Amino acid sequence: MSQPRPGGRTARTRTAVLEAVIDQLTETGYAGLSVDAVARRAGVHKATLYRRWGTVDGLLLDALTLFADRSVTTPDTGTLDGDLRDIARSALAILTDRAGQALIRAVVSAGHDDRVAEIIRAFWTRHNTMVARIVERAADRGELPADTDPADVSRAIGAPLYMRLLVTAEPLDSAAADQSAAAVAAAARAGVFTRPAAHGAELP
Amino acid sequence: MSQPRPGGRTARTRTAVLEAVIDQLTETGYAGLSVDAVARRAGVHKATLYRRWGTVDGLLLDALTLFADRSVTTPDTGTLDGDLRDIARSALAILTDRAGQALIRAVVSAGHDDRVAEIIRAFWTRHNTMVARIVERAADRGELPADTDPADVSRAIGAPLYMRLLVTAEPLDSAAADQSAAAVAAAARAGVFTRPAAHGAELP
DNA sequence: CGCTTGATGCAACGAGTTGTCGCATTAGAT
DNA sequence: ATCTAATGCGACAACTCGTTGCATCAAGCG
C-alpha cells in the first residue's frame, strides 16, 4: 500500500473529522454542517478540511461511504417470517444508530448530489440482492409465489420504519420492526408483490 | 374581519411570496431557501419579508399552513380494497404535486421546528381519523378484525410512497399506490394491525 | 375627492460566514 | 539523519444576513 497506515497522522485526522461530522449532524442537522464547525470540533485547521474534502458535501460523502461500506448479512432462520423479522430488526438497528440516523437525515436533506445518490443506489442494490436470496428460499419452500419481486419486498420492509423516523416522528422500537415484517409476510404470501406477467406465457 | 380582503395589496404580496417559496424549494431545496432569494423571486423587497415573516422558517411555516389546511375527504367505495386504493391514490397525488413534494422534502430537512411539528401532527391526526372510519366500516362488514388499529393502517398506506420519494428516489406512479393499498389490505386482513390485548380480557 | 394609516420600497450598514492563499512547522517514511 | 507530504497558522476579500431610518405608495374612509 502507498497509503499511510491506520496509525498514521492522515488516518487519525480522517477519523477525528468524520466523527466530528456525525456529531455535528446529530446536534445541528445538515443545515448546521459547516466546514468551520467540523474543523473546530475535530481540533483540525479548516484549511486542512478544504484541502482534503473540498466542500461540506465532500465531508458528508466520505462519512457516508465509511458507514455504507458495512457488509449486509443474509439471515437464514428457516422460515420466511423469521428471515423478514431479522431483516426488519437490522434496519431498525441502523435507523436507531446515532451515525445511521444522522446520515440518513442528512442524505434526505442533501437534495440530490449525484455521488451521494450513487452510494444510496449501491446500498439498495446490495439490500435487494440479499432479500432476493430470502425470497427464493421461501419460494422453494412453497411459502411464496415463485414470481415474487424482491425489490418490492425489500422496500416494503423498511418503509414503515423510515416513515416513523423521517415523516411522523414516531418511536422506533422492535414492535414496529416486527409488525413491519409481519405485514410484508402477509402481503407477499397474498401475492401482492408478484411481478406483472412478463411475456404472457400463461395467458389463455 | 379587520383583515384586508383577498384583493388587497397585503394578500397579493402573501400569495406572490408563498408561491416564490414553493418555486425556490423546488429548485434548490430547503438548503437554498433564503429570504433574499424568495424576495427577489417574488419581486418584493426583502425588508418586507423580514418584517412579516421574520425568518426563513416563518416563510416555510406559512406556506405549509396554507397547504396543509386542505380538507381530508373520506372515500366510501363499499369495499376495504376500494377505500384503501382511494386513500393511496390521494397520498400519491400529494406526493407528486409540485408544492406537496417541495414542502414534504422541506419539512424533513427543517429538522424539528416545534411549530412545523405541530402542523404535521395535526395532519396525521386528521388522516388517522379518516382511516378509522374506513376501518370501522370494513370491520362492520366483517372484512377486518374488530380491533384493527387505524394508526397502523394509516401509516402503512403511505409508507412505501414516502419511501420512494425520500429514500430510494424511485418513481411514484399509480401502480405503486395500488400495490401499497393491496399490501395493507392483505396485512390488515391477516390481523397484523391488531391492537395488542389491552386489559387481558381474553387471556386464559 | 382628499386624507389617514399601515404596508412596502429603498439604500446602506455592521456583523458574521466562506473559501483561499503563502508560509512555517511537524509527523512519518526511507 | 533527511526528505516529503500533510498539517497548522493567520490574514484576506467576497459574500450573506438581518436591521434600521426614511421615503413612497396603496387601500379604506369620510
Automatic annotation (TrEMBL), chains A, B:
<dbReference type="InterPro" id="IPR009057">
    <property type="entry name" value="Homeodomain-like_sf"/>
</dbReference>
<dbReference type="InterPro" id="IPR001647">
    <property type="entry name" value="HTH_TetR"/>
</dbReference>
<feature type="DNA-binding region" description="H-T-H motif">
    <location>
        <begin position="34"/>
        <end position="53"/>
    </location>
</feature>
<dbReference type="InterPro" id="IPR050109">
    <property type="entry name" value="HTH-type_TetR-like_transc_reg"/>
</dbReference>
<feature type="domain" description="HTH tetR-type">
    <location>
        <begin position="11"/>
        <end position="71"/>
    </location>
</feature>
<keyword id="KW-0804">Transcription</keyword>
<dbReference type="Pfam" id="PF00440">
    <property type="entry name" value="TetR_N"/>
</dbReference>
<dbReference type="InterPro" id="IPR036271">
    <property type="entry name" value="Tet_transcr_reg_TetR-rel_C_sf"/>
</dbReference>
<dbReference type="InterPro" id="IPR011075">
    <property type="entry name" value="TetR_C"/>
</dbReference>
<keyword id="KW-0238">DNA-binding</keyword>
<protein>
    <submittedName>
        <fullName>TetR/AcrR family transcriptional regulator</fullName>
    </submittedName>
</protein>
<keyword id="KW-0805">Transcription regulation</keyword>
<dbReference type="Pfam" id="PF16859">
    <property type="entry name" value="TetR_C_11"/>
</dbReference>
